[in-house]
Specification:
about 90 residues, alpha+beta, Alpha-Beta Plaits, four-stranded antiparallel β-sheet, elongated
């Protein structure tokens, strides 16, 4: 089973692309500790908006869902980034 979640986020305090990338690098490096594939998918040229794609594989949908939910919870718990939408897909 392959699980995918696309997270749209806003970084309100970012006043430049450098500040945005600093926040994103911190989020992405923490997510990679969960053994997930993570990448910024869209809005690379916007200061305060980003779309992050997260992918994992497991033997069951339940296991995939648990890992992806943990990743979404990590993003949601951070004060410097606001998760506005999470869209899940299963393959």
């Amino acid at each position: 089973m392959i699980g995918y979640v696309e997270c749209e986020c806003i970084i309100y305090d970012a006043q430049s692309l450098k500040e945005k990338r600093s926040v994103l690098q911190s989020v992405i490096s923490r997510l990679k500790h969960y053994n997930l594939a993570v990448s910024e998918l869209d809005s690379q040229d916007l200061w305060q908006h980003t779309v992050i794609g997260i992918v994992t594989t497991a033997s069951s949908k339940t296991a995939c869902e648990r890992e992806l939910q943990r990743a979404v919870s990590l993003i949601d718990s951070r004060p410097d980034i606001e998760l506005t939408r999470a869209t899940y897909e299963w393959l």
